[in-house]
Amino acid sequence: MSSKNKYNPQPESSRSTYILGGLAVLVIAVLVIGGVIWQSNRSKPRNDGYGGVQNSEVQVALQDDGVVLLGRPDAATTVDLFEDPMCPYCAELENKNGQELAQAIDDGKVAVRYHVLNFLDQLSASGDYSTRAVAASECVAETGDAVAYSAFHAALFSPSNQPKENGSSDHTNEELAQIAGDAGASDEAVQCITSGAKVEQARTHAEAGRQALAASGATGTPAVVKDGTVIDALSNENWVSQL
């Protein structure tokens, strides 16, 4: 084939092609960078640095059905929060709004009824991690130390402590007790967790929580319910301030 029959793009055509190609790459880069920034901001903790509840007026109580009530007696409103200690989306909610919620509790704007469930037991390495974490939560709540309970609750869902679904390991009772002790829980609570004293009770309470979740109309965890209405807390990052 002679050289005159080969395709030789004109300089103008080539230049336009490169300009358009460069613009396309630039647009894609902007979209990717924007997406990364958006995702980073979306997962960034709100009120970062506040920590758990600090107000001595905040009380914690383990109720007969296993629900843990955390709040000031004069709290303006009360919400129900359903979660499983193995649930990654529950950890996402805690990481995003936990500190913001703690300040709202301190300020008397809201009290929280924690329903800690165990439906992810089967995905834990031990086969009963969620139940034992429920028991640990109850051990700490029963001591009446609201500050320690808030800190322990946050620690349970922290990236460094939450076991992975279908992972190769989770925490023993002794390790859960250590996490509680590090959060400020009393020796009584630590011993309660270590001995597994509340495990069977926790299993019963978790089932009651599962039934309450189903009755609320929520389809899974985490679920936040206020006055019978399910709040889409994962999608609405402002849900705490809007309570």
Care to describe what's here?
The chain has 243 residues and is of the alpha+beta class. It is built from seven helices and six strands. The chain is globular and about 40 Å long. Mean pLDDT is 88; it is low at 1-18 and 34-41.
Question: Concise description?
Answer:
The chain has 243 residues and is an alpha+beta fold.
Task: Give the SSE layout.
Blueprint: H1 11-43, E1 59-62, E2 68-71, E3 78-83, H2 88-106, E4 111-116, H3 129-142, H4 146-156, H5 173-182, H6 187-195, H7 199-216, E5 223-226, E6 229-231
Parallel strand pairs: 3-4
Antiparallel strand pairs: 1-2, 2-4, 3-5, 5-6
Domain Thioredoxin-like fold: 68-241
Keywords: Membrane, Transmembrane, Transmembrane helix
Pfam families: Thioredoxin_4
Proportion in β-strands = 5-15%
Structural class: alpha+beta
Q: What is the helix tally?
A: 7
Percent helix among the residues? 40-55%
Q: Span from first to last CA?
A: 77 Å
Q: Mind describing the biggest β-sheet? A: 6 strands, mixed
> Taking strands numbered 1, 2, ... along the chain, how are they ordered across the largest sheet?
1-2-4-3-5-6
Tell me the series of helices and strands, N- to C-terminal.
Answer: HEEEHEHHHHHEE
- Rounded to the nearest angstrom, the radius of gyration is 25 Å
Low-pLDDT runs of 5+ residues are 1-18, 34-41
What is the molecular shape? Answer: globular
